[in-house]
Structures are given as structure tokens and as C-alpha cells.
Amino acid sequence: MTTLLDGAIALAQAHETPWPRDPFGEPPAGGAPWGVHQDDPPPYNRLRGPVHARGPQSGVVWRHGQPLAAWGEPARADLTFSVAKTCLALLAGVAQADGLLPDEHEPVVARLPGIGFDSDHNRPITWAMLLEQTSEWEGTCFGLPDTVDRWRKVAQDPRPAGGPKGGARPLQAPGSHWEYNDVRINQLALALLHLLRRPLPEVFLERILRPLGGGDGLAWRCYDDAWVDLPGVGRVQSVPGGTHWGGGLSISSHDLARLGQLLLDDGAGLLPAGWVQRMRAPVAVAPFYGRLLWLNRDGQAFPGASRESVFMLGAGGHIVWVDPAHAAVVVLRWLDPAHHGTVVAAFADALADR
């Protein structure tokens, strides 16, 4: 007998992303080119780090901390694009647990002078602003100016589009304007590298994924030229917070479910008390967003999901949906964004039916 969950899985599998499976291959008939870098103005519309072929539409469902369903290739460590942003927020929590970030409202420059926060405009920027994407940081990070992602419009941002992407939108005071900007996210990753003084992939494996029982096949790759000299440590690479220009986090669906469960479990003792709650709190100037998490407070972003739900989202069709109302985590990989709403609604019906 076919269940609602079976139907939701079949619906997801019927709507694989239109991107080709080979990042350097031709799009399928009626498909779309691989990646998001093509939308950038020249000369920034190119890959700067390694990428690799992807698997099919895949996913897993966990309920009450236990696997409920899996399909596709859930053990495959696939690129996950901006889901890596949420992983940076988890690493900031690790830094706070270690006493390296006692106050996320402290200006970054107070502990890390000389890495891009010293100008009059950037000096007030706090860690919280970087995590909320309200920093308005100005500068260039590994050859990419922040202007390349100004005026960027992403699907879950309910506000109308502003100017043309890559245009020199006038800067606002740090903390007063929300903008989805991958260059600023890369600057956050660079700051965390300097703060933790260890490659972020090592810390992520050691402090987050391995304690959760995961980490097999994980890779977090850098741009080819993203090298940093850390005093007393040596030459290391700084990872990007996504795969906008290549590189980024490759991780399995099973491990994404583990990260979702970590949020459900309020950090599972791996993060400071209250850290996850602060990640889930709406940004004052962007109530649809938390700290590198998407929210559903008005029920409009993802109808069917509870209003307590939070989402990690990545280009190419990656969703990690964490729904406390159902004690559930739903991971969807390589799902056509045009069908995100209907597929999430189908899974919501399936969870409500169980």
C-alpha cells in the first residue's frame, strides 16, 4: 500500500534539478546551466575552485532522532552550496564554547585587527552582524569584491528586487540592512579561521560531525588562491561558505540529517547553551532570516511546514528542513527549486499523517 510518505518521495524524485549532473556538461533539454556563477558580471562569472559531478535527486527523513526513510544516493558526499553557511554558524558556536568568542556583539576588529575590518566603515561590524548577513562589510576577499553580490535577490527573500545584481548599491550603516552576499560570508569564514587558528574543515569534523557519528566522505574545499599565513601556524587555506565560485562543502544526506537533528536537540551539548535559540531568532531588519538559517515565522516561505521550522538552503535544490512540531528532519538534495513548495507540502502532509 502506497503511503503519503512514499508519494512525497516519488514527487521529489520526479522533480530533479534541471542542472546537468556533470558541472562541465551540457544542460539537458529544457535544463539550466550548472551553478550560479554565470549570473555574475564579468570577470567574476567563473569558477575559482574545484567542483565535481553530482548524484541524483536524493534525500532522507528522520523522526524523533531516528531514520525513517532514505532514497537516491544518501551516502554520497555531494556539493551542498549555501548549506555551508549554516555550518559556519555552528563553528562560531564552537568558538564561543572554547572562550574565543565570548560576546558575538563585539566588533570583529577588537580581536582580529588587520584582516579586513579596520576601515572606518567596517570597524563597527560585529560577529552577530556577519552571522545575520547585516554587516554591510565593504572590501575584497580573495579577489572577489563585495559589490559583485550587492542587489542580489534570492528566492526566499520576500522583498522586491532592487537594482541590477553587481551594481554599486549605496552602503548602509553596519547592522541596518540585510543582504544575501557570498563575499561577506567568505569574509566571515576567513575571520573564523583566524579566530580558531585551525582549518575550519578539521574543526568541523572534530567538534561537530564526528561526535554526531558522521563525517565519512566529507570534504570542504577552497578556492585555488585562498591561502592565508596564520602567525605561529603556517600557510593554510580558507574555505568559502558555499559553492558560488567553486569549492565548498561536499557532505552526505545522512550527515545533513545529523546537522538538522543537532538543531532540533539545541546543540546536543556540542554548542553553548542558547546558541541554537539565537540562530533561530529572527533578524530585526529581516524577520524571515535568523543566523544563517531561513525561517518560516509567517508560514509563507514554506506553506505546510510549521512556523517553528528552520531551513538550511543551498543552490541547485538543497533543503535541510528542521521541524520541531513534528520532531522531524527532512533532507532534499538536487530538487528543482520550482517545486520546492509542493514537495515540502507533500512531506508536511506525510509527517502529519504518521
From TrEMBL:
Q: Which Gene Ontology molecular function entries are recorded, alphabetically? A: hydrolase activity
Task: Name the InterPro entries on file.
Answer: Beta-lactam-related, Beta-lactam/transpept-like, Diverse_Enzym_Activities
Q: Keywords assigned by UniProt?
A: Hydrolase
Entry keyword annotation includes Hydrolase = yes
* Region Disordered, annotated ranges: 15-46
- Keyword check for Cell inner membrane, yes or no: no
Which part of the chain is the Beta-lactamase-related domain? 60-332
Protein name as annotated: Serine hydrolase
Q: Which organism is it from?
A: Rubrivivax albus
